[in-house]
Structure formats: structure tokens, C-alpha cells
Amino acid sequence: MKNKTEVKLIKNRAIIKFEGKNFLGEIGIDGRIFKALTYARISVGVISQQAIENGISVLVSEADAEKAVNCLINEFEQERKSGKVSLIYSISNVSVIGFVSKDFNKIMSELGRNNIFPLILNQVAAENRVNIVVTSSQDEKAKNIIEAEIFARPKTVHLAIIGHGNVGSTLIDQVLESSEEIRNRKKIDLKIVAVANSKKIALNRSGFSENWNEEILVAERPSKVEELIAFSQQNQLENLIVVDNTASKEFVKNYPVLAENGFDLVSSNKIFNTLPISEYRNFRHILNKKNKKYLYETNVGAGLPLIDTIKLLHLSGENITRIKGVFSGSLSYIFNNFSVRDEKFSTILKEAVEKGFTEPDPREDLSGSDVARKLLILARELDLINEFGDIKIENLVPENFRNLTKDDFIARLSELDEVFDEVKNSQQKNHVLRFTGDLHGDLQQEKGELDVKLISVPADSALGQLKGSDSIFEIYTESYGENPIVIMGAGAGAKVTARGVFGDILRLSENK
């Protein structure tokens, strides 16, 4: 390469593979290959010997591949008959990329993170000159990654946003509003190239702008993960992140295949982390094998730094003995207000629904299942093998209300008032109601004890002083004894959750 600042891409090449036994390093083999190909007027590029495969690879023009194979078959006819040369064949649709870099290992690491593994590597250490051969389907992507590393260009990260409801649409707006600042400050170019809902997916190679919602309206492609994978491969997109903002039980089934196809994942969707432990562990195995990451800080506590804190404590060898708290922002709002206001439970609940604190059908919150999922996620961060069925859940929805339609349930909310008034009035003086999750027991064993229930606590306690829709988590450890690490803050809301998801995206992007 004459220009040391250039990354050169040469397309339409083919590899001629020459395999056998007991000839590696034998004097004259390389010369015979070159002589035979030169005599046939075939130009030879990179040459590489593979000790593991006991073979030699040479690079030629794709148009000369068949001719080169036949030429070498004739040249080494005797060796083929004796078995010394076993195979001579070609691999088409490859490209060669040449560049100069002092940080070759960093480049190889970045390529590997994007599922790009060179078929041939030729390095001149003294000159820091490198030639790699990759498949044609990955050559442009490889070139982009190499150029970003060598020339310190902003790293392009391609985002696929799945789900554009409250959290998803807020996230998209946050990314678009912050993209220029992030590009300038962090040298990361965030591009939203896919937006999907349950029915269709909109794709844009150049990245969506503020009118993304108009493009999804006219999109015609079905919302299938195969569409996204094919799009990313056809356009050779590097640094891929899928962001799952849904609550879909179906979409999480795609996580393994996405990781297999080069996507990292960020998710506010809690479902995957509460699947049977066998699926949970198998996915972690795939992530490790493919060098992919899966971040889900917002699964518990919205934007609060809870999961990371627990991970760090656990990895450092700290013995966590108990995790207790108010896990649900919606139930926090309901019982924080019901405990201190002289109003009926139904009034407070309707208010929470109208303000968007609960799910459209508030029974999803009152059932305790959401809190249970969050508690299970934290248990598994401690390497416990609890299943969802192990959790003791107090369902606040009376049995005769569970099969009603949503509208009928809302219409009959006042019938719950007597039950909750009785619970409220039966408390000790200066106590308040809190709906809590509690992970306890001997957490050094395979399983812990998980309880989700409505309890009464002193109004001046940490749980009792909770306000608004805030969440609170008390982490008890062996080192801290009876003084827990307390993490408290906004535990609900689209903006808070979207900001937490955005944080995970940036963490992944900086480490890609």
C-alpha cells in the first residue's frame, strides 16, 4: 500500500485452498504454486500458510478461480495420486482489505464483535501493514469498522427500536434530540434504522428523522425478525443493537436468534429474564459464545441504578442476605396516597389510571405479577435458580373480579372500597400500607424465598416515608449488617424508563 492512511478494499476475489499433509514448510511448494499460476497468466495476491489446516491459501481474481484450480490440479498431479495433496478448491465471493495500523488487536476485536472473522490474515509486523480477506457480504461493514478505528471517526451504531408506545416513542425522541451532542462529545453516531410494532416494521438505511412516525404508518413490511436480520445483512450494518420496549411474550423468543446474528440487546421488557431457568441460562451461553451483550437495567426500578449495584456487589463476593422494597411505581402511588388521604381506594385507583401510572387494565398491577417478575429478576442476579412458580404472591384483585372485562372491572371499582377500608383501618397507629417484594432466606443456597404482599409499616420508616410514585429498594449485606444500602427514586413513567434504556444503549455503544 503506497498510501499508509488509506484503507483499500478490493472486491471480486477468490481463495484457492491447497490442502494436504507433510508438505507444510517444504521447500519449493510456494514456488511451484506461483510458477504454475504465473505461467497460466493468473495474478496472485495474498498467500498464507495455515499450520492447523496443513494447507496453503492464495488469492486470485474471482474470474480466474476455476482456471487456477485446474492449473494447480495439473501441477500437483503426482502429489494428489500419492495422497500428499488431498484437496485443491476455490472459495468465491471474497474481498481483500489492506490497511496500516499499530493497534491491530483492537481492530480484530471490533471485527469479532461484529461477527466478522477473516478467512485469511497476512501481516507485515515491521511495517504495521495488514491484509485480511473477508466474505463479500461483510466487506463494506469490515471497511467501515476499520476506518472508524484507524481514523478515529465517530462509531456508527445502528438501532432497531421494537415497540413505539409510551416508552418507545419517548426513547426515539430522546435519541434524535441528543444524537448531535453524542456524536460530538462521545464520537458515537446513533442511527435508528428500524422501528417496529406488532404488525409492521419500517426500515431506513440512512436512519430515521423526526418524521419516523409517518414512515411507520406507510410501512408495508411485516413485523418479522427475519426482515430485520435480512435488512442488516444486505446493508452490511455494523454495531447492531435491538431495543425491546414491548411487553410481548412472543418477541422475547427472538432474542437468541438476534444474538446469533450479531445483535446486542437492550430491553425494558421483563419477560425473558423470568422465563424458565433453562432458557435463561441457554441465552446467556449464546451471548457468551457470540460475544454479545444484553442490558436490562430498567427491568427493575426504571432508571434507578439497581441491577448494576446488585451485580457489582455479588461479583465482588459480597454476601447479599436480603432485598426488600416497593418495586412498583404504580402501586407506590396508589398506597402512598391511600394511606394518608381521606379518600376511597377506588378514587385513588381511578386517579392513578387517568395519570397513566398503571397499565390500561389496573388488574395487571394489582395482581402482583409485575412485582413478582421484578423480584425474580433480582434473585437470578444472585445466581439463584428460583422459578416464577416459587413466588408467594398476594393478588389484590378479588377472585370474582378476575374474569371481568376491563370496562366492567373499572365500573365496579367502588365494590373494592369496603375491603381496603378495613385493611387500612385495622393498622396500628402511625402505620401506612406498602405493597412490597421481599427476597430473603438463606441466599447462599440454590433458591431463596420470594414474597410479594401488602404490608403495614411505621410511617417514619424508610418504606413508610416514600412519596409519590417513587420506588425504594433495601439491599442487606453481610458487611453492612442491619444498615441496608438504600436506592430510592422515580420508579415509573415513560420518560424515566426511556432515559434508563437510553443509558443502556450508550453503555453498549461505548464498549462496542
Shape label: elongated
Query: Strand fraction band?
Result: 25-35%
Assembly type of the chains comes to: single chain
How many strands, what sense, and barrel or not for the largest sheet? 7 strands, mixed
Query: Treating each run of at least 4 consecutive H or I residues as one helix, how many helices?
Result: 18
| Overall structural domain count | 3
CATH class of the largest domain: Alpha Beta
Detailed description of the structure:
The longest helix has 21 residues, at 166-186. The two termini are 28 Å apart. The protein folds into 3 domains: 8-150, VC0802-like (2-Layer Sandwich); 155-299 and 498-511, Rossmann fold; 306-492, Dihydrodipicolinate Reductase, domain 2 (2-Layer Sandwich). It is built from 18 helices and 19 strands. 37% of the residues lie in helices and 25% in strands. It has helices at residues 29-39, 65-75, 77-82, 104-113, 139-150, 166-186, 212-218, 225-234, 255-260, 277-290, 306-315, 329-340, 345-354, 363-366, 369-381, 406-411, 417-425, 494-511; strands spanning 8-20, 47-50, 55-61, 85-100, 120-124, 129-135, 155-162, 188-196, 200-203, 221-222, 240-244, 263-267, 294-295, 320-326, 392-393, 431-440, 449-458, 470-477, 485-490. Helix 12 (329-340) packs antiparallel against helix 13 (345-354). By secondary structure, the protein is α+β, with helices and mostly antiparallel strands. The mean pLDDT is 93. The strands form 3 sheets. Strands 10-9-8-7-11-12-13 form a 7-stranded mixed β-sheet, with helices on both faces. Strands 2-3-1-4-6-5 form a 6-stranded antiparallel β-sheet. A 6-stranded mixed β-sheet has the order 15-17-16-14-18-19.
